[in-house]
Design goal:
By secondary structure, this protein is an alpha+beta fold. The protein contains twelve helices and 31 strands.
Length: 610
């Protein structure tokens, strides 16, 4: 018997869930091979839904009981979960299931990692914990009670603020029960639970409104000395998000747990981030500078999700770039501020060209927001994350820093506590800037990497750039429309003096010309400064001009790009023709290395081989 063909899910087929959840109460009675999960959920009809059938996801669950308003209800096992007959009115659902964490080798849902209980619920892991509408647009407040009579689980954690109870309900510390209350509505994919023999590296953070937040990084015994850098990175992230985005942390505690067995690098579960150990633990004796920078960036990324992903989440998994692209962009801003802005930008472009450009040009090419999928886990791609972040950067470039900040404030105010779409995101910018962004939205729906071709013309003191754009066919998209491409351009005179600072040209047609008057001599253009759009640039540029830009360009990215191309050509010539290194390249490189106004990390990067 052949397996059934995978089911294709389409964005156009989205319909809201038939029920709204007011609150969720979960009780976990932990056991390595027979954990009991008891759920009590209050449902009420969703007035925006047309289908009120009652379906809950569930996989690998052993049913014990199910009740509606206190009465046993018959369950119908269907593909992917269960159905039941329920009243067309508010009702209380109670269910008890048994699961086997020890046998869960998929590391989705609740599983064991070296004797420690751990969860991973993004994208669809919660359905392996209990029956539930496991979809991101169903958001609810959670209260979680964790019980264990085992000595190896002295620490038991979940989302929200923790209260530690005895069985009789008194609030003095008890080793056998933990209760966590999360006041903020969240989808099930953000649920987390960890229980085991852990030790905490603790600290506190005072928010901009004066609240004290308890911080802890939980690790296995023996790893305590590897937590200090991660804690400082967390505190820097919290402070940066307040200063740059005005976002204050919203719980009384924030916990990170290091886990050896974890499918992802890290996960932004509300108030309880779970990390692969390699992404949070570091020591000067065993970690490189690159390790420290990577840990700092990942901690920042998961923390920033608290607002861009948790407080405002995605309506469905087609909108994954809404939370991931925006948060990747935010963590890139953070790293640029903490370290070297030019080096961070160059590193991001190198990664984009190495991973995302080939993806865009191959058989797996897909839009930043796909139209369909068969397996959502296959869409955690460079296109969703890295190109999604580039789209955010282009939007900021087009509207400007002040308008971007205004739009983000409106986004947080308008959509706090909601599950949103790309349309919601674009609408915020249209409302706050009075711009029509209908054409810009093509960046979310068209796949592939556009090519921008440049021609130059100079006559009668006027310098003109003729720009054209084209996009090759990609799977399912044979015809491409012109997109909005911000092309950042600066002009230098023949003495290397910048005569026109960076100006953003908006290329919106297949072909467009931009003229700059009043130049007595032909200027030298610096095009696509800061890599202002994720495109390939085709221009006729010789070695002499590259050497000139390497020596004089005020844009760090284009200066590096010129040096990289010169180094490549010089190395190839040395290999093929046994020639000496190009003198113009060495002179340009010398001017960079002697410039004490440049970032030392940037100057060091300029020495790297292409």
């Amino acid at each position: 018997m052949q397996d059934a063909a995978p089911k294709t899910i389409f964005l156009k087929d989205y319909t809201p869930f038939g029920w709204i959840i007011d609150d969720v109460h979960l009780t976990f009675r932990l056991h390595p091979s027979a954990t009991r999960v008891i759920s009590r959920i209050r449902f009420r009809p969703n007035p925006d839904a047309t289908d009120r059938s009652f379906f809950l996801h569930g996989e690998a669950l052993k049913p014990i009981s199910a009740k509606v308003d206190g009465h046993e209800v018959a369950l119908r096992q269907v593909d992917g979960g269960i159905e039941a007959d329920v009243p067309d009115a508010p009702f209380n659902w109670e269910a008890e299931v048994e699961i086997n964490p020890e046998a869960n080798t998929a590391l989705e849902g609740l599983y064991m990692s070296g004797g420690m209980y751990c969860t991973q619920c993004e994208a669809e892991g919660f359905r392996k914990i209990t029956w539930y509408p496991d979809r991101p647009d169903v958001m609810a407040q959670f209260t979680v009670r964790i019980e264990s009579d085992a000595d190896h689980t002295p620490v038991m954690l979940s989302n929200g603020n923790g209260l530690y109870y005895h069985q009789d309900g008194t609030q003095t510390p008890a080793p056998n029960v933990s209760i966590y209350q999360d006041p903020w509505p969240k989808p099930a994919y953000l649920f987390a639970l960890v229980a085991g023999d852990l030790v905490a590296h603790e600290d506190t953070f005072t928010t901009m409104s004066g609240r004290d937040v308890d911080l802890a990084i939980y690790v296995r015994r023996g790893d305590e000395h590897k937590c200090a850098f991660g804690m400082e990175a967390l505190k820097k992230s919290m402070k940066w998000d307040e200063e740059v985005y005005g976002r204050e942390y919203d719980l009384d505690e924030f916990n990170i747990v290091a886990v050896d067995d974890f499918n992802m690098g890290a996960m932004e579960n509300k108030g309880l981030n779970i990390f692969n150990s390699s992404c949070v633990l570091a020591s000067p004796e065993t970690s490189t500078d690159g390790n420290f920078e990577r840990i700092e960036a990942i901690i920042a990324h998961e923390y920033f999700h608290n607002w861009t992903g948790n407080r405002i989440t995605c309506r469905d998994w087609f909108q994954l770039c809404l939370k991931e692209g925006l948060t990747v962009y935010r963590d890139a801003q953070f790293t640029a501020d903490m370290r070297s802005e030019p080096v961070k930008r160059i590193d991001d472009v190198l990664a984009l060209r190495a991973r995302q450009f080939p993806e865009d040009q191959g058989p797996l090419s897909h839009p930043v927001r796909p139209e369909s999928f068969q397996e959502i886990n296959n869409f955690y791609t460079a296109t969703i994350y890295e190109k999604g972040a580039e789209v955010i950067g282009m939007l900021k470039t087009l509207v400007g820093d002040a308008a971007y900040a205004k739009a983000l404030d409106l986004y947080f105010d308008r959509h706090d506590g909601q599950a949103c779409t790309i349309e919601d995101w674009i609408q915020v910018f249209e409302d706050s800037t009075d711009r029509d962004l209908g054409q810009f939205k093509l960046w979310y729906s068209q796949s592939g990497t556009p090519k921008v071709t440049v021609r130059e013309d100079y006559q009668d003191d006027t310098f003109t750039l003729h720009l054209s754009q084209s996009s090759a066919p990609t799977p399912g998209q044979s015809e491409k429309l012109p997109q909005v491409i911000p092309v950042a351009v600066g002009l230098l005179n023949d003495n290397g003096v910048e005569v026109m600072p960076t100006k953003v040209l908006e290329l919106t047609a297949a072909e467009q010309s931009f003229s700059f008057e009043g130049h007595a001599t032909r200027p030298v253009p610096s095009i696509l400064r800061g890599f202002s759009a994720p495109v390939t640039l085709e221009q006729d540029i010789d070695t002499a001009r590259r050497s000139f830009l390497l020596s004089h360009d005020t844009d760090p990215f284009n200066r590096w790009e010129a040096g990289r191309m010169l180094a490549r050509d010089s190395l190839l010539a040395s290999i093929r023709k046994d020639t000496a290194p190009d003198a113009d390249y060495l002179d340009g490189l010398k001017s960079v290395l002697r410039d004490d106004t440049l970032d030392p990390a940037y100057r060091a990067l300029m020495l790297a081989q292409p």
